[in-house]
Amino acid sequence: YASTNSCEEGLAVIRPNSHRNSPPKWTTRQSQRLNSSTVPRGCNTTVFVLIVVFSSPKNFEQRSIIRSTWAEIKDRDPEITNIIIKGPYTVESMVKTVFLLGQTDKETQRRIETESEYYNDLVIGSFTDSYGNLTLKTKLGLQWAQTFCKFEYYLKTDDDVFVYSKGLVKWLWQLPRERVYTGRCDFNKTVIRTVGHK
To answer: How deeply is 107 buried, as exposed, middle or buried, from its count of CB atoms within 10 A (0-12, 13-18, 19+)?
Structure first.
């Protein structure tokens, strides 16, 4: 990736100049397969921002709070209304949020299956949910998104983060329509080299 912007005010916007027309190809191994019974409905229409929330299986309360707060845009903000008028989006298709989980103990897994049937917003991989499997979780999120959704932007976040959905939509809307990779720049961070430290 080549950056056309430097880090300003702690924010980097990177526009890749390679692989522009070639989406990633996924090879599926058993450990990365989607459980067919736990794949939520894809996006019925093109979504402006697809938010994929990495969640620990036992974090039922966090997922509930996210659903009731920032998981979707619920009110009619004048600026959001203007965006909807200008683009092919509805209030419902501005933001779609799904939660990404791995496998856990049987009792928790049963509760998760009930939650999945009710909300239809859980993507559950067939690997053990652990810190060591974050790479598999990341790949699964991208794989699910590419297979089941059409979207303008993809946001990866965690279930202990607050996302200001309306502000995010407004900010992304004013960006040039090209491939963008953006995030916060952390300056002068010390690398922790202690064995066993996560």
So the answer is: exposed
Burial class from Cβ neighbours inside 10 Å (0-12, 13-18, 19+) for residue 140 reads: buried
Task: Give the residue numbers spanning the domain of 42.
Answer: 12-16+35-182
Which alpha helices (DSSP H) does the chain contain, by range? 60-68, 78-86, 91-94, 106-119, 134-148, 165-173
Q: What digits encode the pLDDT tens for the residues 94-114?
A: 899 999 999 999 999 999 999
Residue 2 maps to a domain? no
* 131-180 tens-digit pLDDT: 889 999 999 999 889 888 889 999 999 999 999 999 999 899 888 877 77
Q: Which two tokens stand for residue 87?
A: 């683009």
Residue (of 167, 176, 142) closest to 156 by Cα position: 142
Cα 133 from Cα 38, distance rounded (Å): 19
Domain for residue 5, yes or no?
no
Look up residue 114 and give its two tokens.
């009930």
Q: What is the pTM of this model?
A: 0.78
Q: Which residue has the tokens 């620990």?
A: 56
Instruction: Tell me the average pLDDT across 8-37.
Output: 46
Asked, for residue 24, whether it belongs to a domain, the answer is: no
* Residue 56, in any domain of the structure: yes
